[in-house]
């Protein structure tokens, strides 16, 4: 095996579980990926994957060994890259950031504008992703995450707590009334998540605490839930930093939902923490978001919203 791309192909198929998904990951067409895999198997005289129904590719013992070796090589390659970038003292170049849709929509972009004014030589590439991108594999340099990082190689800081509350259009509140102190949802039309959002903690809480028949509108986008609430569709369960900053909706219960209290973290790989671009982003954007702690934690008064 003389070509690193052969190893990358085997690793991608093993990770993605199909040739189609692997070809998309590598940016090549399906027929090219198929020809390269067949040529590699012929060259080695060994079958690397079993083709199962539904297009699933399951690695054989030989395929698993090659994929494991490729992963070790990838780890070394990425570590070398992080080591080089980690010593970069230039306030110029590319900086890849990942954030959720809601944070980017409501708060982050203002701070990115401030960062641009402070450091015009740095080009920010923002990936709006609700899935967790790998900082070890350099899918992003910096992540803004709603959970404390668990991976030992990551480094970051907590910016604020994150509170969730119920929001609705003023016209809806005038017709149906606000929630009681007990926050009982009886008689209210609710905006919720679709089935694909079953892994979201707020979606799980809503499924346990509200009758399915009460949910009159479903979407996997929190931004769209906000827009639906603004249009008077019903009550939406939103992060307070999203709802309290939007003049088209009002909080309909004084206290946030205690069970949904979360956190906002800014995270990078430990190897990149001393990179000038990363430090600058932590200083400008991270500190800017941290100064909005009251908004994130739902402590901004709701009287001005009614």
UniProtKB/TrEMBL annotation:
Protein name: LysR family transcriptional regulator
Pfam families registered for this protein in UniProt: HTH_1, LysR_substrate
Secreted listed as a keyword: no
Transmembrane spans: none
InterPro entries, alphabetized: LysR-type_TF_proteobact-type (IPR058163), LysR_HTH_N (IPR000847), LysR_subst-bd (IPR005119), WH-like_DNA-bd_sf (IPR036388), WH_DNA-bd_sf (IPR036390)
GO molecular function: DNA-binding transcription factor activity; sequence-specific DNA binding
Residue ranges of every copy of the HTH lysR-type domain listed in the record: 1-60
Top-level lineage group: Bacteria
Keywords carried by this UniProt record: DNA-binding, Transcription, Transcription regulation
Protein family (similarity comment): Belongs to the LysR transcriptional regulatory family.
GO BP annotations listed: DNA-templated transcription
Keyword DNA-binding tagged: yes
